[in-house]
User: What shape does this take?
Amino acid sequence: MFVPQAPSVQARIAHAGARLFVSPLEHVIPSGPLGVRITRRVIAGFMALVSERAAGVEVQPVDVQTRAHGRIKGEWALPEGSAGDGVVLYIHGSGYNLCSVGTHRALVTQIAKRSGLTVFSTEYRLAPEHPFPAAPDDVARAYDWLLAQGWSPDQVVIAGDSAGGHMTLGLGVELLRDGRELPAGLVMLSPLADPSCDLMEQREQLVRDPLISADGVRRLFAHYLRDTDPKHPRLTHVLVEGEVLPPTLIQAGGAEFLAADAHHIHDMLAAVGTDVTLEVWPGQLHVFQAQPRIVPEAHRALDRATTFMTGALARRRAERSSAEVTA
Assistant: This one.
């Protein structure tokens, strides 16, 4: 496991600021749909403050109604000089309730710029308006639509953060069990693994997340789960022997309770033989990669993540070329 250096001064300040100014909001913002709407505005403002849109990346909105895949919404992020030999399907985080391609636009442009790859950032329906399984259904349709645009699975990396990381894992598992060709790689940033929040609660006894409590997340997830058991197979994604996923990179912050989920996913994937790398960055907050304006570690983590993406695609190209030569 890659272990980065101790947190920077900026990261320590960000941690203290989150504890003092963000965490108390959990006890001020009301629960229920009104609270979700308020939190959406708060998160959008926070992301605008800490994120940084990359120069030289064109963003093109997508909103199309298709016969085969239904309505597809999202954004292309097109970096200058893209070779066009690979694409990233990006699934933004949200707690299944909160964010959008707009809140994550800057992060997606950073990925496109640093990797040189085209990125499709997909939108999906949110709770409480649209509970489970609306979100993973939308993401699966977006993946199939992406392939219909001419990309082959070995030209695709699936990536996502938080709930988007959860759906990245889920989509990979569903493709595997459907017997379909798998993408070149998976990247998960601060991924959720356990919607019951039991893993978060256990880690909370050791590390207090400065952004929100496990109980606060559980209340948020209730809008998404409704009457669905959080141990539903499409929510837990338990792999068994022989179910090997593509090469996978997982990054998490050491100050967040989802580090426990990241460890859980890593251990499960490693046990079945997946080539998986886990990076837990000391002192970092949830999805710190989206905060390049305030923490220098965001830049280093993004560089490592995008290097992994291009490397995974290069390996699949080499494997394909070798297979064609020997055929």
Notes: The mean pLDDT is 95.
